[in-house]
Amino acid sequence: MRIQPANRRLGILLSGRGSNFEAIADRIASGKLNAEIAVVISNIESAPGFERARARGLTTVYIPSQRRPREEFDREVVEQLRKHNVSLVVLAGFMRLLSRVFLEAFPYGILNIHPALLPAFPGMDVQRQALEYGAKFSGCTVHFVDDTLDGGPIILQAVVPVRDDDTTETLSARILKEEHRIYSEAIDLVLSGHCEIESRRVLVK
Ligand code: GRF
């Protein structure tokens, strides 16, 4: 099945630092990524990434998530994404699991980046886990989001060697550099209609 988003309008969802969002925004600003950030949505009003989005003059929408049923929150997010005519949703450090309401509104239309080589080390705090496990290589993964935890079809990965003298911080920093590179590349592949899905394999045509 060929994946072809209807337009190049992105909806960015974030809850924290926002360095992946900024890398994507910089790529777009420099003309290297042909896309438009239609809206930046956050469930944390004070998230640094959200402040940076406002400073860049982007359209931002705060949607509180605390003490609300997941579906109700997701419905509001979907409503905003639709209102801003978004065809590709980009999770950039968005600390929420998505309900069916959200997933079904954007089939193969939601991307996530994860700081490990999936399927190794899904979940949280994974750079530390890779280090403590003794993995010799880690890296990052951009994947479509489905109803599994970090388990959707993989679009791109980058490998980062683990050094003997690495700490969680040094390893995370080297992985992050690769995240900033491959996230934009993956977005471009998807927007350009180059991705085809065969069972769970993403083939780049
Ligand atoms: C990144 O490590 C990303 O892989 C993970 O959450 C972190 C977000 O960092 N999903 P930032 O907010 O983009 O700086």
Biggest sheet strand line-up: 4-3-2-5-6-7-8
CATH architecture of the largest domain: 3-Layer(aba) Sandwich
Give the low-confidence spans.
none
Q: Tally of extended strands?
A: 10
CATH C-level label of the largest domain = Alpha Beta
Oligomer: single chain
Number of domains: 2
Bound molecules: 5-O-phosphono-beta-D-ribofuranosylamine
Average pLDDT figure: 97
Helix % is 25-40%
Order of helices and strands: EEHEHEHEHEHEEHEE
Basic shape: globular
Protein model, in words:
The protein is an alpha/beta fold. The protein folds into two domains: 7-107, Rossmann fold (3-Layer(aba) Sandwich); 113-205, 3-Layer(aba) Sandwich (Rossmann fold), CATH 3.40.50. 35% of the residues lie in helices and 25% in strands. It is built from six helices and ten strands, in the order E-E-H-E-H-E-H-E-H-E-H-E-E-H-E-E. The strands form two sheets. Strands 4-3-2-5-6-7-8 form a seven-stranded mixed sheet, sandwiched between helices. Strands 1-9-10 form a three-stranded antiparallel sheet. Helix 2 (48-55) links the parallel strand 3 and strand 4 (60-62). Helix 1 crosses helix 6 (168-191). The longest helix has 24 residues, at 168-191. The N and C termini lie close together (12 Å). The model has no long low-confidence stretch (mean pLDDT 97).
